[in-house]
Amino acid sequence: VFQKWVNREISNFDYLIQLNTMAGRTYNDLAQYPVFPWILRDYTSEELDLNNPAVFRDLSKPIGVVNEKNAKTVKEKYNFEDPLGMIDKFHYGTHYSNAAGVMHYLIRAEPFTTLHIQLQSGRFDCADRQFHSIPATWQALMDNPNDVKELIPEFFYFPEFLENQNGFNLGQLQMSKEVVNDVVLPKWAHSPEDFIYKHRKALESEYVSAHLHEWIDLIFGYKQRGPAAVEALNVFY
User: Fold this and answer.
1) What is the pLDDT of residues 126-154, one digit of tens each?
2) CA–CA dist 75, 147 (Å, integer)
3) How many Å apart are CA 97 and CA 95, to the nearest integer?
4) Rounded to an integer, what distance in angstroms lies between the CA atom of residue 33 and that of residue 203?
5) Per-residue pLDDT tens for 184-217?
6) Contact 109/155 with Cβ under 8 angstroms?
7) Start-to-end Cα distance in the chain
8) Angle subtended by helix axes 192-203 and 12-22, to nearest 10
9) φ and ψ at 19, to 5 degrees?
């Protein structure tokens, strides 16, 4: 598979799906759901210029420290001494992929809606914690080193999860009183289909093809554990 990918006989999308499968990740288990990278960092421009490297996320860094400002906090957390010596050191107390995160992204699509409601003891979580906007989700990641959610494959092929087609009442945001309905898209996307098309195009772009292996090292490769993980600020609880 690796050789095929290097020879560009299979797409970046296909290669990531196959890596996830080989790593034991599957759509049948929310706790081991396939994980995909955030690949862009420009969610505000009117047009998305895939020839400009500045629109892409730095794939060599874990999502928690893509914003340099968070590195200090993350290092401090790692250097904190557990007085009882019971807990192994870590940079992040949460994970880049978990069941709650999958439900968070897919809340508008069944069976994930029902699973989310079960998780929240029979009702929707408060509106401010819902997945309501792609630009706002990215901004929150940049501002908060404790939020380290990567993406799921649906961001590259499934426009329906961005629409509230079932008309669920997801509440309204506290500050702006905005009703949470369809997911708010980046300015450069004119519809959920347009977002998926451009996002998939970004995944297959020259820039991502040249740098994707750096992210793979963090998630599936030699930077998952040990000294390389510590150095890369990539140790999870």
Assistant:
1) 999 999 999 999 999 999 988 899 999 99
2) 15
3) 5
4) 19
5) 999 999 999 999 999 999 999 999 999 999 999 9
6) no
7) 31
8) 80
9) -60, -45
Would you state the structure tokens that stand for residue 185, as one six-digit string? Answer: 């898209």
| CA separation for the pair 36, 157 (Å, rounded) | 12
Instruction: Give a three-class secondary structure readout of 62-100.
Output: CHHHCCHHHHHHHHHHHHCCCCCCCCCCCCECCCCCCHH
As to burial, measured by CB atoms within 10 angstroms (0-12 exposed, 13-18 middle, 19+ buried), residue 88 is exposed
Cβ–Cβ under 8 Å, residues 35 and 20: yes
The owner of tokens 């906090």 is 73
In eight-state DSSP terms, residue 121 is: T
Helix (H, G, I), strand (E, B) or coil at 236: strand
Instruction: Return the structure tokens found at 134.
Output: 């792609």
CATH topology of domain 1-42+54-232: Neurobeachin; Chain: A, domain 1 (1.10.1540)
List the domain boundaries for the chain: 1-42+54-232
> Strand, coil or helix: what is 232?
coil
Pairwise CA distance, residues 20 & 127, whole Å: 31
List own/partner pairs for 222-230 with CB under 8 A and 24 or more apart. Answer: 230/78
3-class state of residue 216 by DSSP:
helix
Q: What is the dihedral of CA 48, 54, 56, 58, to 10 degrees?
A: -170
Cis amide bond preceding 62, omega within 30: no
